[in-house]
Amino acid sequence: xxxxxxxxxxxKLEKTFNEFSLEEVFEIIEKTHETFLSWRTTSFSERKTLMxxxxxxxxxxxxxxxxxxxxxxxxxxxxxxxxxxxxxxxxEYFAENAESFLHNEKVNTDATESYVQFDPIGVVLAVMPWxxxxxxxFRFAAPALMAGNVGVxxxxxxxxxxxxxxxxxxxxxxxxxxxxxxxxxxxxxVKDIIKHPKIKxxxxxxxxxxxxxxxxxxxxxxxxxxxxLGGSDPFIVLEDANxxxxxxxxxxxxxxxxxxxxxxxxxxxxVEKIFEEFKQKFIDKMERIVIGDPIDEKTELGPxxxxxxxxxxxxxxxxxxxxxxxxxxGAKILPRQGFYYSPTILTNLKKGMPAYDEEIFGPVASLIxxxxxxxxxxxxxxxxxGLGASVWTNNIQKAKKIAxxxxxxxVFINDMVKSDPRLPFGGxxxxxxxRELSTYGIKEFVNIKTVWIK
Length: 454
Hints:
Elements: E1 2-7, E2 12-18, H1 22-39, H2 44-60, H3 62-73, H4 77-101, E3 105-106, E4 113-120, E5 123-128, H5 135-146, E6 150-155, H6 160-172, E7 180-182, H7 190-195, E8 199-205, H8 208-220, E9 224-228, E10 233-237, H9 243-255, E11 265-271, H10 272-287, H11 307-322, E12 326-329, E13 344-347, H12 354-357, E14 364-370, H13 373-381, E15 388-392, H14 396-405, E16 410-413, E17 432-433, H15 438-442, E18 446-453
Parallel strand pairs: 5-6, 5-8, 6-7, 8-9, 10-11, 10-15, 11-14, 13-14, 15-16
Antiparallel strand pairs: 1-2, 3-4, 4-18, 9-17, 12-13
Helix pairs in contact: 2-4, 3-4, 3-6, 4-5, 9-10
């Protein structure tokens, strides 16, 4: 099977790659394991130097790598540059902090000495998505490699140039060959890869269905997984919120990455007293968004990443409307070259509609009226997902109380949800399990070993 890179802004083929055979994949895994045997013995100082080099490579060539991202999946170029810069940051953060995060922890017991140490486990498979094709990989790779592990990457099949560029970054930085390798394969080979005895664990960022499959395959082999899956994040606006700031952030939070983000705000839950005012401001802002070629720095909204995803999005919207949802603006495929969808707001939503129940991966906002704060919390939790949530109010104590009641892995007060290397990131319910980033994330793929001395 050929793996193709198609520019979503034009619909035209950029490049074709031959898929690796299973024999080629297994050879890479074996060589990656051999690299692990020496890499695990390197000092934190050596790893730190190389990881900082990786950050420098990205900072020095950020426009080059950003253009690859934009051409493969359609992100506006300014956002692609910011993504590359954030990847450099996560490399620098774990280069600086990995040693202290993984320092032996002494524990007082009846032993002469007892402590916990954190040993690398080996080759970790990373199954990664197209929507943040650099960030999703580096937020796994930076802590994993600094912990002494090595990795193989099965990237989404529509971003092969990004996958190869990431491998190139590590090699350009001076990491030993096969410390981190890209596998140009389809998803049909993942099960066989997980069965390989040299694969010790797997991490996946992607859809709920993909996560279930990976968890099933890994569970059969008794191999650990970390899953970051979909989201239908609530954006709760209470009557004492700064309305203009909330609206401005709401538009950004819904349209970031062309609306294709797990942690994008998707369900906008606004209390009745300010609902109409919020609605009018929201419509006005959405209708003034600049749509265009994502390479153009003026563009605020680019295309959907693939043609099939464009039609899937349109089907979700049309089905919701057929079931009684009201279109406030947008709701159509744009008649232009490429895979573009109009900025959309739907309201009059009810349980059972795709725009209420499902993850909508595109520039479509679900606007829901709540009678009061309590109903807003109930609606926020009325979902199978639990990734992030945003709460808007000037009463911070009230916001903190609401944060304890919302069933998500992240709650942001008076700002949009975002990931940060210094904080743990992950979800609950059907949004997955395990954590990435921070001191919690780096310990997901280590052997937490007790050492007891008489």
